[in-house]
Amino acid sequence: MIFALFGTNPYPFIRLRDMLLDIADDYEIIAQTGSTPIDCVPYECHDYLSHDEVMGYIAHADILVTQAGFGSLKDCISSGKPVVAVPRKPELGESQDEQSEIAEELERLGSCVVLHDNESLRSAIGRACSMQHKALPKGNIPDIVRDVVEKEFSK
Fold first, then answer.
1. pTM of the model
2. Per CATH, the architecture of 2-153 is what?
């Protein structure tokens, strides 16, 4: 099963909707579509899901296809499953900011596959499923916050 995350961006992501349509005959697809209009698509869609619901679908999915916002990418990559990142493009009215830079860096680190314009979703899925997945390095922000809180409350 493919779980697709369009994100909660207020801009529609028609490109991702159409990419999924191209493979819908070959995969079971469940999608969190956000602001993207979905009319008569042959896969299960939910406008918005709670974070717990998203994490439940991620846990049950075999493949994850996501817009390239960091929150979605982090949740997908943390699952250890194949991830295809599709960066939203401001020039296509899909977002205000560019998502390619973070996605390409995560691809360089071996954590996901970025779907480039000249590639099909089917091909990107194949690359993601055949790659050796590398987890994201763990940040130290929780440790910093804990240290500051402990220092302040020990006074």
1. 0.87
2. 3-Layer(aba) Sandwich (3.40)
